[in-house]
Design brief:
binds alpha-D-glucopyranose, 19 helices, single chain, 4-stranded mixed beta sheet, 6-stranded mixed beta sheet
Length: 424
Amino acid sequence: MRSWLNGVALLGAALTMTASGAQAATIAISCGAVGLELQLCQEGAKAWAEATGNQVNVISTPNSATERLALYQQILAANSADIDVFQIDVIWPGILGSHFIDLAEHIDQETIDQHFEAIVENNTIDDALVAMPWFTDAGVLYYRTDLLEKYGKEPPTTWQELTEIAREIQEGERADGNDRMLGFVFQAKAYEGLTCDALEWIDSFGGGQIVAEDGSITINNEKAAAALELAASWVGEIAPEGVLNYAEEESRGVFQSGNAVFMRNWPYAWALGNAPDSPIAGKIGVGQLPKGGEDGKHTGVLGGWQLAVSKYSENAELAVDLVRHLTSPEEQKRRAIKGAYNPTIAALYQDEEILEATPFFGELYETFTNAVARPSRVTGEKYNQVSSEFFNAVHAVLSGKSDAPSSLEALEGKLDRVSRGGRW
Ligand code: GLC
């Protein structure tokens, strides 16, 4: 197991006793490394380590949520005490919850109640709060304000409009000498991120959420097929063929280097795109994702990350204290300003310094609080199978291996078997 734990940074004072005279311990926390995640996690953990006289090992994990889950499952299945605090995805409480302690027994109710109720509920499995909300996410549309202005365009309200504007600007810019210009970049690699993007396309067309809240499998419908057909038409046209292998950071790389008009991504891309060394600093707009036609709706998938304490931790009390610190309003504010990670505490959306750093946190408040959930609660432990079947079916359509209606029909059959007839 130790071989997984490379890239470890030992933070904090090398003490054996804490200031209060208690035995100092080393707490290991797994963090993501997308955008500024790792740096912010290390800074936050270091502050806690220094304040308490303990040490923290920050363990960097794969960027892909799909790969990270596989790693966590391996560590937890071995009942390993190697990681005390796990950064877990909003879709994992049902899959991993049985390995975590009930934080409601350690953290006072008032502190828990500061966080969005829907996320606390999401993280509650069989009456146990298996993880504390850390940051929330919703898919948003990034655009180049300078390019839209140059071509006399408004941000698109429908995907069809986005397609046309992207094509026009891509062609215009290429004719003007930037032959690398692309209309639209997003996440179309076969992994959890594609589940998010594709669910947004489908939901925006009114095609449902793959599996409805009552457990019925709804994915095989005409609106979902129309959404996927439109998305497939982008590949090799306004998006590069390579998008079929893009995750968040690949999309951000292209957009941030100045070579894309539009990008679908999570809020974190804002801070990096506006950093002093970014070629597009000050030229970025952020808005809701477009509707699937005039009768469609604006939507954004709910993402976000939580902190959970392992049942196998040998220092659970200290691990909880680290979680308490990292999820606190002060730390969430620091992360919002520095990295555009959305707080899970409603009050922080009124904070002037946060709104100055990331104005769209205020403008898109409704998008963040009404984001559409992936069907992880109803499918429970089977969510990962559902998502894998879904992103593979979508990937087949985007790469031209299958047409949308046949792919969705086959997917329906697979999900029917996975759920034993929708009983989950
Ligand atoms: C973001 C979201 C997370 C999602 C992942 C997919 O990290 O916060 O919920 O699963 O992207 O790539």
